[in-house]
Structures are given as structure tokens and as C-alpha cells.
Design goal:
There is one protein chain. The chain is 62% helix and 11% strand. By secondary structure, the chain is mainly alpha-helical. Strands 1-2-3 form a 3-stranded mixed beta sheet. Strand 2 (66-70) and strand 3 (73-78) form a beta hairpin. Helix 1 (2-22) runs antiparallel to helix 5 (81-105). The chain is elongated and about 65 Å long.
Length: 128
């Protein structure tokens, strides 16, 4: 039945989901990010250009995002490579889950037993 296939799919995603939840963009490098502080993490573009190396180092060391402003308004955000990687990993995961849910809604799913039978007939007994 399609429902049982979906349930087993969710169970198989549980370790991945737990991993993603424990490693979010708010915990780069395994430690919590400090709150964005206007006095420390907002920088005018002119100051950022003059001290780019220092701001890059700070973002990498603290994991905190740096908001670059132009004319007093946020114009960009600087993230450490680790925070960016985690953000894109999380976005890919969410997209994959949404795709799976759309497949389920459109009845493009197979039961676990049907998939197991097909794998058995194609590849033989895995217990050899």
C-alpha cells in the first residue's frame, strides 16, 4: 500500500532529518551563533571595503553573519563558508522532502514490498 511505503520513507529519512536539525545555519561549526549585533555585525560598505580581510576573518572565526549596508540599508550578508554550506545543504534537503511529498500527493509512490520484490527479481537474494 502506498501509505506504508511513505511511512518507511519517512523512517529512512529520520537520521538525515535529525542530522540537519542538529546542524543548522544557526550552529555553524557545531557552536551556537551569537545574535546579530548592530554595533558589531552591521558594517557600511565603505568600511567593509577598507577592512574586508578583517571582516572575512571575523565571519570565519565567529560563524556570525555580517550585514553590509549601503545608504543605511542592508545590501548584503557575508557568511562563513561553513554557514553557507550548511544553508545550501538544508535548502537541498527541504527541496527533496517537498519533491517526495509532491510525488506522494500525485500517487507516484510504490509500496516497500513492491520495491523489495522488484529488487529481488532483478538482483537476486542479498543474503548469499
Amino acid at each position: 500500500m502506498a501509505g506504508s511505503g511513505l511511512a518507511s520513507a519517512w523512517l529512512s529519512l529520520a537520521p538525515v532529518w535529525t542530522k540537519v536539525r542538529n546542524r543548522s545555519i544557526f550552529r555553524p561549526m557545531g557552536r551556537p551563533v551569537r545574535n546579530v549585533r548592530i554595533s558589531e555585525n552591521f558594517v557600511p560598505v565603505s568600511e567593509f571595503k577598507a577592512q574586508a580581510a578583517a571582516w572575512l576573518r571575523k565571519a570565519g572565526e565567529t560563524g556570525a553573519p555580517v550585514v553590509v549596508t549601503q545608504n543605511g540599508k542592508p545590501a548584503g550578508v557575508l557568511l562563513s563558508p561553513e554557514a553557507f554550506d550548511e544553508l545550501t545543504e538544508q535548502a537541498r534537503f527541504v527541496a527533496a522532502v517537498e519533491e517526495g511529498l509532491a510525488d506522494s500527493d500525485a500517487a507516484r509512490v510504490h509500496s516497500h514490498s513492491a520495491v523489495a520484490r522488484r529488487m529481488q527479481s532483478r538482483f537476486g537474494d542479498s543474503g548469499e
